Amino acid sequence: MTGLLAVGVVVALALATGGLDSQGRPTAAGTTPASPEPSPTNDAPTPAPSATPTWDGQVKVLGDGSTSYTGPQPKQPTPEKLKPGEKPPQFVVFSWDGALEGDEHLFSRFRKLGVENNAQMTFFLSGLYTLPKSKRALYHPPQHDVGAASIDFATDPHIKDTLEQLRLAWLDGNEIGTHFNGHFCKAKGGGEWSTDEWKSELDQSISFVTNWKTNTGFKDLPPLPFDYTKELVGGRAPCLEGQKALLPAEKAAGFRYDASSPGEFQVWPVKKEGIWNFPLQMLPFPARSTQGLSMDYNFLAGQSGDNLNGDPRKYDVWEKEARESYLAGFERVYNGSRAPLFIGNHFENWNGGIYMQAIEDVMKSVCKRDGVRCVSFRQVADWLDAQDPKVLDKLRALDPGQPGDWSRLVK
Fold it and tell me: In whole angstroms, what is the distance from residue 272 CA to residue 168 CA?
């Protein structure tokens, strides 16, 4: 991993992309090529979520039937305050940007792996992945033409497959967060948006998810088994850009955390703007003096640059580097401060799928170890909120690899 992983340059590269379109631009896996952007219009209405409930047996169907209330989410742990002298759990969060079930079926693959390895995760859903390309004019992105997007709209079969995985993921105890919509970065991207523009982006993302039946016409599919307006408590900005203006918008929406901050060290979290800041982290890179950001795309950038499919002869070495970096970051805190480990991923087969295999190996290696809890970001927030603030202050004073004197830290 090279010095370009020192946050700024690589963060700009962290796009949720997959293949290449006809013009050589990265595209999301399992999507259709982007159509020409329609001309902007002031007449196209910005969609708004509906909250009118009706009853259907034991399910409280919401709005147009896209979502529902089926009771408290199953398989959720009860957060407990640390007992005197108790060592904190080692939290590990595997999170996924975009959350599309494409042709590679990576969403379903890792959802099943989570069940098999006692791992619950956070899936940051891009709202556009529930909106057909034929309805793209419903999307009014900040600072861009109506219907424009930097990711491609999903095919109808992939929308259906994604909805099915979202249902199953929530029932498995996983969290459904947001990755917003159009994935705009750099010029006119999230880093240049105002708080009001972020509010518009967030409102539209919620609307697409809560009105997918109206927008798709898939009336025969069951509703999602949760009320997204209540379950949505956190997100990650595309390319990790714009957190300063985004935080007030998230706070106004009742969010409990944000996962958009890049390149911070493995330390116990703090709050920004009154909500938890869960950043991607700088991890040790074995055999090199540098550290790398805990995201698959950043390994790609350091190993094959802009080439999403580099030299196959190097795949084994690159896969080992990624796996060992994740494990080194885990071991540092597991045997040290017990600060949570935050990992970000995309459902992509970059460089022959080596980053997917590295994550699978890490999940199988760490999630069943003594004292380890592979959880969602929401579950980390639940646990932190249950702790004595003075104890959290003491935990934050520890270096990542510094074991705590738990009998003195936790009283």
Answer: 32
